[in-house]
Design brief:
Elements lengths: L8 H27 L8 H7 L1 H59 L7
Protein name: ESX-1 secretion-associated protein
Length: 117
């Protein structure tokens, strides 16, 4: 085999689950940031006139970014986990086909007749 990636189906499935778990952690961070939002009244007139707009913009950008992070991690985790399950299914089908083929070979070899004599 060339210099490609090597991974077992189980490790892919496990990795997918871990990535989805990281997505849950990212969602928790986003929730905490949203809960910690400083309301307008806390800024006072000077704060509202000078920095509140920038604060809101940064908070909105951060929240949007965290939404994208959560979505990306969830999608990546699902797709990697699905790939692991697909590999498991493919391995199982290949093993079943090989067993059936070997069973047919045994039947032909042990069935007598048709051989050279």
């Amino acid at each position: 085999m060339g210099g490609g990636y090597r991974a077992t189906a189980d490790s892919l499935t496990g990795c997918g689950g871990k990535i989805e778990s990281i997505g849950s952690d990212a969602d928790s961070i986003k929730q905490k940031a949203t809960e910690a939002e400083v309301p307008e009244i806390s800024w006072g007139l000077l704060g509202l006139a000078t920095v509140y707009g920038s604060y809101r913009e940064l908070l909105d950008t951060f929240t949007e970014h965290m939404d994208q992070v959560c979505e990306g991690l969830s999608k990546a985790g699902t797709e990697i986990g699905d790939a692991g399950r697909d590999y498991q299914d493919t391995d199982r089908r290949a093993a079943d086909a090989m067993s059936a083929l070997l069973g047919n070979v045994d039947n032909i070899a042990g069935g007598g007749g048709g051989g050279r004599g």
